[in-house]
Specification:
The protein is of the alpha+beta class. It has one domain (29-138): Roll (Pnp Oxidase, Chain A). Helix content is 32%, strand content 32%. The chain contains 4 helices and 7 strands, in the order αββββαββααβ. It has helices spanning 4-17, 73-80, 103-116, 118-126, and strands at 31-37, 44-50, 52-55, 58-62, 83-88, 92-100, 133-138. A hairpin with a 2-residue loop joins strand 3 (52-55) and strand 4. Helix 3 crosses helix 4. The longest helix is centred in the N-terminal third of the chain and has 14 residues, at 4-17. The termini are far apart. 26% of the residues are buried.
Length: 139
């Protein structure tokens, strides 16, 4: 049986092979590939995540982990090493700095995710944690 890492790699390969368009799971052009460095390992990793373009220099990502009780590993990696790069469908590779949103800014950003996909509403219903939203701002 294929693991989660295998599925992620399939999505990453499809993103790169099709200039940012991913038909798997209906993602379309709504993903970014987040390059992050392990907080403990120091190893660079790549994670496909839903990215919502806020403005010319900012993308929003949500640490939903499909509603799991804990945040995804990449979230902890961004807190430890916030200067990262992303691969985008329209702008190619972009150097960004990760900034966790709080309060009303987080709530407004989260509303954009739940409006875009019912999956995010389902994730929120599955967990008691507040799902973090991260702004990736062009450096």
């Amino acid at each position: 049986m294929a693991g989660y890492g295998d599925w992620n790699q399939k999505v990453i390969d499809e993103f790169r092979d099709n200039d940012g368009t991913v038909t798997t799971a209906g993602f379309g052009r709504n993903l970014v590939l987040l390059h992050h460095v392990g907080a403990r390992s120091g190893t660079e990793r790549v994670s496909p995540v839903m990215g919502i373009r806020q403005d010319e220099g900012t993308w929003l990502i949500a640490a939903s982990k499909a509603g799991a009780p804990e945040n995804p590993a990449w979230y902890h990696n961004l807190l430890a090493n916030p200067d990262v790069t992303i691969e985008t469908p329209d702008d190619g590779v972009v150097a960004v700095r990760a900034d966790e949103l709080a309060g009303e800014a987080r709530d407004r950003a989260w509303a954009r995710f739940t409006a875009k996909s019912s999956g995010f509403r389902d994730y929120e219903a599955r967990t008691t944690r507040t799902i973090p939203v991260i702004a990736l701002r062009r450096r």
